[in-house]
Design a protein that fits this description.
The chain has about 240 residues and is α+β, with helices and mostly antiparallel strands. The protein has 7 helices and 8 strands, in the order H-H-H-H-E-E-E-H-E-E-H-H-E-E-E. It has an 8-stranded antiparallel sheet with strand order 5-4-3-2-1-8-7-6, with helices on both faces. The protein starts with a helix and ends with a strand. The relative contact order is 0.15.
């Protein structure tokens, strides 16, 4: 009964009010444990997602393509993969869509950056930049996503990963590594990842080999609500992303 009352109230909010309330609800909560975030979605956010879904200005997938081009930052997500490595910096995490059919999730990881004690200890250690690259297309009014590679780089902790840096890295890897492999008609069947433990590498291999399901529950020019599943039997994950460029 309570959910019905809340849903009815949301129905009378403007779309901008719903978006503002949703962003306020998740502020500062992306670092919570995954179980906490899943419960938070079920108890608080799901009704917002459902109401905004009914108002999606671009329900036809083909119409979403030009809307998503550019750079976004995921500000809240229940994707387990996002925090497989410690120390992800939220404001230096990017989702970049290029108009050539390539899409990248890029994030900087700096273990200890949120702790005043560990920050001093880790200040001279390099940061770890991580990129999951995919190809995207539309078939039968559905997003089709194919993983094409996972890439890593160690960089100076004192120099932030800017949008331009992330975009340039993405472009360089596409041109120097991915397109040559595609021209040969093949993509790497195994991952070459260094300085990671075996369990973490196995997790990334599962991600790489999967053909993820991908759906925009809501999308406009400054906000995306995305539902993803690595495979149909997996629990759906939800992501809120805001445009950066």
């Amino acid at each position: 009964m309570v959910n019905l009352i809340v849903a009815d109230k949301l129905n009378y909010r403007s779309t901008q009010e719903l978006k503002n309330e949703l962003l306020e609800l998740v502020k500062g909560r992306d670092t919570e444990p995954l179980k906490t975030k899943v419960n938070f979605y079920n108890q608080e956010l799901q009704l917002y997602f459902e109401e905004l879904s009914r108002r999606n200005p671009f329900p036809v997938v083909a119409d979403q393509l030009p809307i998503v081009l550019g750079v976004w930052t995921p500000i809240w997500s229940t994707i387990p993969f996002h925090d497989s490595l410690p120390g992800r910096i939220g404001e230096q995490s990017y989702q970049i869509f290029h108009d050539d059919g390539f899409y990248a999730n890029i994030a900087r990881y700096a273990p200890g950056h949120q702790s005043s004690f560990w920050k001093k200890v880790a200040s001279k250690l390099p940061t770890y930049d991580f990129m999951v690259m995919q190809r995207y297309a539309v078939r039968n009014d559905n997003w089709c996503i194919q993983n094409v590679g996972i890439f890593q780089a160690f960089r100076n902790r004192e120099i932030p990963l800017t949008i331009d840096d992330a975009d340039n890295w993405f472009t360089d890897v596409v041109n120097s590594k991915v397109k040559p492999d595609l021209e040969k008609g093949e993509l790497p069947k195994t991952l070459k990842l260094e300085n990671l433990d075996k369990n973490t590498i196995k997790k990334f291999e599962k991600t790489y080999l999967a053909s993820p399901l991908f759906e925009h529950i809501y999308v406009d020019r400054d906000l995306r609500l995305v539902k993803t599943q690595r495979e149909p039997s997996q629990r759906p994950s939800y992501t809120i992303a805001v445009r950066r460029r």
